[in-house]
Amino acid sequence: MADNEAPGLRKRQQIQKAGKNMFVWVAGAAAILGICAVLTVSLYERISFKQEVINKKGETASTLESNVKIAAELKNKIRVLNTNKALLETPRLEGTEPLSVILDALPSTANSSALGASLQQKLLTQDGVTLESLTVDPIAGVEDVSEGTSSSSSTSENSNRINFQFTVTVASGQANILKDMLQKLERSIRTIDLTSVTIEQQGTKMTLNAKGSAYYQPATSVTLKDKSIRP
Fold it and tell me: What three-state secondary structure class fits 138?
């Protein structure tokens, strides 16, 4: 009886052993497959990252190459502007290039106090003209508003515009003086736009009330920046 059971027992043991071996092989194959999948994903991410870096470097190189070409064209245009007859005939500081006239006409900073001083001391100063009042509105959020400076809600809807208003008087019958003063404003190197002008006769005086705007253009800076690319 025992002899008959021995072959069957050995067969079951062999089957169990084969099952264990198969499980080990399947588990090992699954582990290897998982490792391969992880390595594949990691390799793909690295390749994608390096490719993105290469693309960004290519874009940067293309931008720099384009900027070099544009810079050369800009230099040529500046040379041409420096030979412009109108700029050559416009008064400027000694030793400065004609192109500096444009920079003087359109300053890079608001500086409303300097505009007020220019209006008061130069543009509105003329024999026979009395400056009764002058208000220059500083740019809200750009210039500090001092206690002695008037600021209104109408201050520059355009952040590059400085609003001002003034009142001048001349003797009755001296309208030509007012005309000369307005022409002086027109000839000013500073960009000035009068939006409202009214003239009234008050007894022995003529009164001119005017509102206008002057402009400036903030400077643009060109800088190189670092850009981080996350893997």
Answer: coil
Across 4-147, where does the E strand assignment appear? 130-136
Contact present, 137 and 194 (Cβ < 8 Å): no
Q: Does the pLDDT value for residue 165 go beyond 90?
A: yes
Q: Report d(CA 228, CA 138) in Å as an integer.
A: 40
Query: 214 Cβ partners below 8 Å, 6+ apart?
Result: 115, 161, 162, 164, 190, 191, 192, 193
Question: Mean pLDDT over residues 55-64, rounded?
Answer: 85
List the chain domain ranges. Answer: 1-81, 105-215
- 218 phi, psi to nearest 5 deg: -55, 140
CATH of 105-215, one of 2.60.120, 1.10.287, 3.50.50, 3.30.70: 3.30.70
Q: What is the DSSP letter of 228?
A: -
Global pTM value:
0.57
What the block records as the tokens of 149 is 């400076």
| pLDDT (tens digit per residue) in 172-192 | 888 899 999 999 888 888 888
Mean pLDDT of the chain: 81
